[in-house]
Specification:
heterodimer, A: mainly alpha, 0% strand, globular, B: mainly alpha, MetI-like fold, two-stranded antiparallel sheet, 16 helices, 2 strands, 72% helix
Chain lengths: 299, 318
């Protein structure tokens, strides 16, 4: 065991002992376990049928072909679901951010009377809710069943995100800055738009990502609320019926005899639905980590 | 000093009397206006459904409507407790979630301890990026990937097993195997992401403590055990309490994406049963009562866990 020096000289690489190597080995194995399943599915989606049927595809495509992807892009219902998912995610994120800011700013002001009660009203929803059926009846009564709004409105307020935003505004905005603005005659709206929001860009980006990824990935509410209107199915729900339940078939053109095996098509649909997240992942990850850390400040 | 304080409070009280609610409403109307928007949302989409809970105590008939249906007291609850599905659903919910808690809760702690021992920033960052990846996928996608990997017919793991001379294993098509796969997939999805909060807690540890321990001749594992672990204890307890509250819940999306017709032994859980009774069969009263039963037990568990944590000298969350 080497005594670690307080200030290791730069460029002078630290010697790794047996434990370091062992730890690195374990971490590499665990990381590969996280990565390899994707690589396999990607390879499968790019392989030709015969190799997949013969169980010869592992981590590299065999008989490379993008036939399956052509099929997906030719399938109007899958593209339609992608479109619905994008619209719903954008609307949901915008609305969620508006609601969070509108709640967090007043609740972070010490002069705001009644904020304890109102904070409680908001946070109580984190611990207790009506549950699946009362929620379902509510959406039904409001006439939102089989509309896009059943996916946008109900979940757009998140008490957890409010908590993060409120904490950030309370500690992140110097009181003196606000006071000087007030002396200059600025009202609350002016302070919010000209001072608070520009200063809170990082936290807003984080929460917007929380909202967007959460919405993009959810399918439970769509399963409940989008019953008959198949054209309103978001991508995840489409995927559920297509791949997990296998209750729906791909709308293949009559000519496609080459793709008799649904496994390749399934694999490529999975990759297709994962791509949007994978594209933004490196960017998303950085902000998400920040967001989780901010959430941890409370503890 | 005391006199001055007293007169000050008096003054404040006087001021407060003069400034009634109207004063604040007028002064901060913009703030009240802002908060009204989310407040109305919460009332419509969170509190309004709570009134729907009364149908757990009514014999709800759609024709008679919400108010016209008859009160039946606790009869619905007696009814659900005697259903043959009820006991297995409670057992499965507890079984799946407690096992999940055992594995999915401890893995991130172990991983975080390992990651914290790595000095190379680059190595650490690449590893973390890969480890976080599964967290960003929806349960549908994870379910689909699971079938691509684990199915008995064409799953790649079975292909490998066969290649090495073994026999194919029905990972997802047999009850006990399904349970193990369910747990393993849960660990896979959440282990990397779960490390973040522990790593944050570890980054706050004063490096002088390690230096002092080194001077005292402590070895690497001694430092981990005597400095790192105690430093994240509060975080562990907080997260444990929060997770204990979910022992009665369980993720509907996760079970639904991984279930199949061949494995029904463990997949009947409370949320699945609520879905089946309520949305599939339209028995709203029964499903609502079951949901209410679940939330009440969940809240009792959180409060109990919080009390116990406080008794043991931790902070708790409530």
């Amino acid at each position: 065991m080497r005594a670690s020096t307080i200030r290791p000289a730069p460029r002078n690489r630290e010697r790794l002992d047996i434990w370091d190597l062992l730890i690195r080995f374990v971490l590499i194995v665990v990381s590969l376990v996280c990565l390899l399943p994707f690589l396999h599915v990607v390879s499968k989606s790019l392989s030709s049928d015969s190799f997949v049927i013969a169980n010869k595809v592992f981590l590299w495509p065999q008989g490379f072909t993008i036939e399956a992807y052509k099929k997906i892009f030719a399938d109007a219902s899958i593209l339609r679901s992608l479109y619905i998912s994008v619209i719903v995610t954008v609307l949901f994120t915008i609305l969620g951010m508006i609601l969070t800011i509108c709640a967090a700013y007043p609740l972070s002001r010490a002069q705001f009377k009644g904020r304890r009660v109102i904070t409680f009203i908001f946070l109580f929803t984190m611990y207790f809710s009506g549950g699946i059926i009362p929620d379902y009846m509510n959406i039904n009564n409001l006439g939102l069943m089989d509309t896009i709004w059943s996916l946008v409105l109900p979940l757009s307020f998140s008490a957890f995100n409010l908590l993060i935003m409120k904490t950030s505004l309370t500690h992140g905005i110097p009181v003196s800055l606000e006071e000087s603005a007030r002396i200059d005659g600025a009202g609350h709206f002016r302070i919010l738009f000209s001072i608070v929001l520009p200063l809170s860009k990082p936290i807003m980006a984080t929460l917007a990502l929380f909202y967007a990824v959460g919405r993009w990935n959810a399918y439970q509410d769509a399963l409940f609320y989008i019953k008959h209107e198949t054209s309103l199915r978001p991508l995840q729900l489409k995927l559920y019926y297509l791949v997990i339940q296998a209750s729906e078939s791909f709308q293949l053109e009559a000519t496609s005899v080459s793709l008799s095996n649904p496994e390749v098509l399934k694999a490529s649909v999975v990759v297709f639905a994962t791509l949007p997240i994978l594209c933004v992942y490196p960017f998303v990850q950085k902000y998400f980590v920040q967001g989780v850390m901010l959430g941890a400040v409370k503890e | 000093m005391k006199v001055a304080n007293a007169s000050k409070t008096n003054q404040n009280a006087l001021l407060r009397k003069k400034q009634g609610p109207g004063y604040f409403l007028k002064r901060d109307w913009q703030l009240y206006f802002l908060v009204l928007i989310p407040l109305s949302f919460v009332i419509v989409f969170k509190y309004l459904p709570m009134t729907g809970l009364v149908i757990a105590f009514k014999d709800y008939k759609i024709a008679k409507g919400f108010w016209g249906s008859e009160w039946v007291g606790l009869q619905i609850f007696q009814d659900i407790f005697s259903k043959p599905d009820f006991a297995p659903a409670v057992r499965n919910t507890l079984l799946l979630n407690i096992l999940d808690l055992c594995f999915s809760f401890t893995m991130p702690i172990l991983l975080a301890l390992l990651l914290n021992e790595v000095k190379s920033v680059r190595f650490k960052r690449i590893n973390q990026t890969l480890l976080y990846l599964p967290h960003f996928l929806s349960w549908v996608i994870i379910g689909a990937i699971a079938y691509q990997l684990l199915s008995e017919g064409g799953g790649v793991i079975n292909n490998l097993i066969e290649l090495m001379g073994g026999t194919r294993v029905p990972f997802l098509q047999e009850d006990t195997n399904w349970l193990i796969s369910y747990l393993a997939i849960g660990v896979w999805q959440s282990m990397g992401w779960g490390t973040i909060i522990y790593l944050a807690a570890m980054s706050g540890i004063n490096p002088e403590m390690y230096e002092a321990a080194t001077v005292d001749g402590a070895g690497r594992w001694r430092k981990v055990w005597n400095i790192t672990v105690p430093s994240i204890r509060a975080t562990i307890v907080t997260l444990l309490i929060m997770n204990l509250g979910k022992v009665m819940e369980g993720s509907f999306e996760r079970i639904f994406a991984l279930q199949n017709k061949a494995t029904t032994e463990y997949t009947t859980t409370i949320p699945v049963l609520v879905y089946r009774w309520g949305i599939e069969s339209g028995n709203f009263s029964r499903a609502t009562a079951l949901g209410l039963f679940q939330s009440v037990i969940g809240i009792i568990l959180v409060i109990t866990a919080d009390r116990v944590a406080k008794k043991l000298g931790e902070d708790g969350i409530l």
